[in-house]
């Protein structure tokens, strides 16, 4: 698992008009190339009567699956600028389709590049970008008498409590960034005077919204 990466928050869409042409951007998170291809085909089916359905995607931890499709627009004027917007925002696992309904005014190569890039950016703004940071799930088993104090300490220092399990003791699941687990574990030991049982229980991504680049 990557320690962190950027991707889109989920599904979103946005529409703009440029020189009487309608440009509709559709954005989706896709963690496999098959999912990206299926999303593109879904939009093409929805807008079967559109002038163009241009697309691009980047998939994989090492960006190993990339594709840009001009769908009949002059070579390099549609799919590539969409792909460049994905790259500029350093996104992974992201697919964008921009549907165009021609309005009767030709834009020229430069105009098309700007229009498709602007449309892709509008789509990203609509859906939002998130940073996925890899965290370790730390199990914290304590006596009930420590619960209020420990919860307060964790929240004051910005730690996220994922879950609380109540039995004859209290078991908290606390999230900490990968590589920083020992620091948190030592804090908990100090706060509880060692009266705690700690376990590490796998990893999970935590998502935080970030601002996109145009």
From TrEMBL:
<feature type="domain" description="UPF0029">
    <location>
        <begin position="140"/>
        <end position="195"/>
    </location>
</feature>
<feature type="domain" description="Impact N-terminal">
    <location>
        <begin position="19"/>
        <end position="122"/>
    </location>
</feature>
<dbReference type="GO" id="GO:0006446">
    <property type="term" value="P:regulation of translational initiation"/>
</dbReference>
<dbReference type="InterPro" id="IPR036956">
    <property type="entry name" value="Impact_N_sf"/>
</dbReference>
<comment type="similarity">
    <text>Belongs to the IMPACT family.</text>
</comment>
<dbReference type="InterPro" id="IPR020568">
    <property type="entry name" value="Ribosomal_Su5_D2-typ_SF"/>
</dbReference>
<dbReference type="InterPro" id="IPR020569">
    <property type="entry name" value="UPF0029_Impact_CS"/>
</dbReference>
<dbReference type="Pfam" id="PF01205">
    <property type="entry name" value="Impact_N"/>
</dbReference>
<dbReference type="GO" id="GO:0005737">
    <property type="term" value="C:cytoplasm"/>
</dbReference>
<dbReference type="InterPro" id="IPR035647">
    <property type="entry name" value="EFG_III/V"/>
</dbReference>
<dbReference type="InterPro" id="IPR015269">
    <property type="entry name" value="UPF0029_Impact_C"/>
</dbReference>
<dbReference type="InterPro" id="IPR023582">
    <property type="entry name" value="Impact"/>
</dbReference>
<dbReference type="InterPro" id="IPR015796">
    <property type="entry name" value="Impact_YigZ-like"/>
</dbReference>
<protein>
    <recommendedName>
        <fullName>YigZ family protein</fullName>
    </recommendedName>
</protein>
<dbReference type="Pfam" id="PF09186">
    <property type="entry name" value="DUF1949"/>
</dbReference>
<dbReference type="InterPro" id="IPR001498">
    <property type="entry name" value="Impact_N"/>
</dbReference>
